[in-house]
Amino acid sequence: MDISSSDNAAVIAQLNAVQDDPVRLLRKAHELLGNKLAVMSSFGAESALLLAFVAEADPNMKVLFLNTGKHFPQTLAYRRELADVLGLTNVEDIGPSHERVSDRDPTGELWAFDPDACCKLRKVEPLNLASLPYEVLVTGRKRGQAVTRASMTIVEERADGQLRINPLAFWQAQDIQAEMQRRHLPPHPLVAEGYLSIGCAPCTRPVDGQEDARSGRWSGLNKTECGIHIAG
Ligand code: SF4
């Protein structure tokens, strides 16, 4: 089913009606949108819960994993483990082409002197390309993660007309952890080492008990987002 901007209101109304139940929301979205829907997952510290909801709604739902080439090896192992444990059958790795990386980041150190350009090369451009067939993306973002996400809704219409569904928008970190434990979901192996928000290895550090989880991302820089969630 193709949705045009004029159809957005009808789709949003149907999704909003079930927004309090993440599994019903995902099922309804898949029913309405079919293969025009994809889930984005970083397979990070809290990703297992959204992916468990996806598996319960439909394990064949498309899941996109953005492999930047800069992930911790533990994240790559966790991506395989979670897909197996949850029975996800349609996880696709996307990422920058070798040509673009060797052209614009030949030493692999672009992150150190121009992280915005690095995120553009390794995240924004590959996701824009890979998400072309999809009219609606599901994300695991939460309101509490950053001020840029504080007013995010569960069903979100961006400036470019694309819809984003954020089933966990109102979930708190402690509720996510409790639900992950209740469901016996395996934790990301780096959580035990103090990594509470996990992105690329060069741009992620562990946090102590006083810091918020995302303070370990691009630490020391005036940067809180990689750009893939900025409205078009
Ligand atoms: S998070 Fe860091 S390494 Fe990853 S794409 Fe952005 S700047 Fe590059």
TrEMBL record:
Domain Phosphoadenosine phosphosulphate reductase, residue spans: 37-206
Active-site residues annotated for this sequence: C226 (nucleophile)
EC category: oxidoreductase
Record's cofactor remark: Binds 1 [4Fe-4S] cluster per subunit.
Family of the protein in this entry: Belongs to the PAPS reductase family. CysH subfamily.
Pathway(s): Sulfur metabolism; hydrogen sulfide biosynthesis; sulfite from sulfate
Name of encoding gene: cysH
Enzyme Commission numbers on file: 1.8.4.10
Entries under InterPro entries matching the protein: PAPS/APS_Rdtase (IPR004511), PAPS_reduct_dom (IPR002500), Rossmann-like_a/b/a_fold (IPR014729)
Keyword Metal-binding in annotation: yes
Name of the protein described by the UniProt record: Adenosine 5'-phosphosulfate reductase
Binding, [4Fe-4S] cluster: C118, C119, C200, C203
One example of a Gene Ontology biological process annotation: sulfate assimilation, phosphoadenylyl sulfate reduction by phosphoadenylyl-sulfate reductase (thioredoxin)
Cofactor(s) the protein requires to work: [4Fe-4S] cluster
One Pfam short name: PAPS_reduct
